[in-house]
Backbone:
């Protein structure tokens, strides 16, 4: 069965600094019409960084939509057209002060494919060297290092709720055999 939907009309609902929302009229595979509300987002990056003792670098920051402090791997938004790898290297340095001798892709994550076009590119960083952090002026966070095994346990217990952190940790666990 053909599953592709055809866009017939697109209307901008909101045009913000980061998010753009549109309402599309689509033709469904059976020929009927429906609507799709879509959030356009430039995408993001995240980095699971492991130090020489296999401790993961996590940041804690207040996440307004949830009204709570969330523990997660360092991450950031892509600027339109920005190279994801370079953005990830930048975000790791800004948020943790770390630079990696070994930096590799862990793939992509679609966090909310039902309504949002965001793609998060995940990376693994090892062989770390540390310098100063360079947080954005509107960025407030705490940095902690926890054993990688503890991170995986916290993912499995539900203590870690952030999707990108969950995916990066479990992929690294399987890929590295830690």
Residues:
């Amino acid at each position: 069965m053909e599953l592709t939907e055809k866009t017939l009309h697109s209307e901008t609902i909101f045009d913000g600094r980061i998010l753009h929302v549109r309402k599309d009229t689509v033709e469904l595979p059976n020929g009927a019409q429906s609507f799709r509300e879509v959030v356009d987002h430039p995408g993001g990056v995240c980095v699971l960084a492991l130090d020489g003792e296999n401790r993961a670098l996590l940041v804690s920051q207040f996440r307004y939509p949830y009204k709570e402090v969330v523990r997660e791997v360092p991450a950031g938004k892509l600027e339109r057209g920005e190279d994801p790898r370079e953005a990830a290297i930048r975000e790791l340095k800004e948020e943790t002060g770390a630079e990696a001798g070994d930096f590799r892709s862990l793939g992509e994550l679609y966090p909310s494919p039902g309504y949002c076009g965001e793609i998060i590119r995940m990376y693994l960083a090892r062989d770390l060297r540390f310098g100063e952090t360079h947080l954005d002026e509107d960025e407030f966070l705490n940095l902690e290092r926890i054993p990688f095994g503890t991170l995986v346990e916290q993912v499995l217990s539900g203590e870690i709720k952030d999707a990108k952190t969950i995916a990066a940790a479990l992929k690294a666990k399987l890929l590295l055999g830690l």
User: Anything to note?
Assistant: Strands lie at 6-15, 20-27, 33-40, 44-49, 55-63, 68-72, 75-77, 98-109, 120-130, 142-147. The radius of gyration is 18 Å. Residues 163-176 form the longest helix (14 residues). The longest strand covers residues 98-109.
